[in-house]
Amino acid sequence: MRRAQSALEYLFMVAVALILVAITLRVILSSVRSINSVIANYTSVMREKLIENL
Q: Which of 9, 11, 15, 30 is at 20 to 30 A from 45, Cα to Cα?
């Protein structure tokens, strides 16, 4: 019985670790998408400013 209980505890710890990894990846990917859109907007504005100055 003790071996089964420790196996279940191990599986729960692995499940919690995987959930934390999934949450971390979701936050990182969301941040990267946000940064990419900000950079894209910045480059388009800078391109327009350069074209205006030429």
A: 30
